[in-house]
Amino acid sequence: MGVTQVPEISVGSCDRTMPVIGMGTSADPPADLETAKAAILEAIRAGYRHFDTAFAYGSEKPLGEAIAEALRLGLVKSRAELFITTKLWSSFAEKDMIVPAMKMSLSNLQLEYVDMYLIHWPVRLSKEVKKMPVEKREYILPLDMKSVWEAMEECKNQGLTKGIGVSNFSCKKLEELLSTAKIPPAVNQVEMNPIWQQKQLREYCNAKGIHISAYSPLGANNTKWGDNRVVECNVLEEIAKSRGKTSAQVALRWLYEQGVSIVTKSFNKQRMRENLDIFDWSLTEEESKRIAQLPQKKGVLFANVMGPYDICLEIDAEI
Ligand SMILES: NC(=O)c1ccc[n+]([C@@H]2O[C@H](COP(=O)([O-])OP(=O)(O)OC[C@H]3O[C@@H](n4cnc5c(N)ncnc54)[C@H](OP(=O)(O)O)[C@@H]3O)[C@@H](O)[C@H]2O)c1
Asked: What region does 293 belong to: left with phi over 0, alpha with psi -120 to 50, or beta?
């Protein structure tokens, strides 16, 4: 089987280009180290060069092992061929903890730098938090945006990451961040797919030069934080059937045509290749129009991650 060449794009203040499709590494149920490592190596063989991880996923270590193995096997010639995104977990979202947290992620990844470091959620979690969802409302605290972003900028200035950005940020949160940022965020990674198209946030980010990266592009099919609303959407299935594609490919192609990048997870050899096979065809105007008119429903809720608290409702309402 051949290796797909994934196009790369410039993303704002990031010092290098980003492959438009990345392999997600958040698995449900969580994958053991060997399973995740094998899947990542298979993804590199298929042509994936961008990998999305996070301290919270527990996938930094298997990703690091897979990168080291890919280099040993000569699947990639140098580290620089890969684009690695990881994320600051909310328990470390405090000025003095951020550079050390970044260094801990680098150690897990066996890397000297990552390509993108994102603030995972726009909140801070208190030190009492031992498990998710958090046990008490008081443990979810506001983020001190100015000092947290200064520490993110410090990570970039120290060369620990080529780019810095955010995840799950609303227009309101971005506005607050931009009011003091010296380096603007390159990326906002958010849920986006044909059933949650993020029109307003995309307009805002376009105007500010912030690149959108779409997570759960397939609606997180078969996971506890998602369902089959995208892969079994009638309109996508009809378009797929008439074009000899799958509904997943139609969803991913639609995202690509919106100018966003995509992080999608498959640890299955066939499906990870299927998800890359979207570059040599395009949707017709009529097909795009039908997708644009799909009824909208947010899938990934902050409340499901953090717990059933009033502050969660506020964040869910914004994003
Ligand atoms: N920043 C954040 O807060 C945040 C939140 C969620 C996710 N993410 C990131 O984004 C990545 C992707 O999002 P996601 O994992 O939530 O959802 P996703 O990519 O929309 O869906 C992944 C699920 O769909 C299945 N799948 C993959 N390809 C398929 C296909 N062609 N047809 C049918 N099913 C398919 C996968 O199973 P198989 O593996 O069995 O194929 C997996 O269960 C994550 O892994 C993570 O890296 C970030």
From this structure: alpha
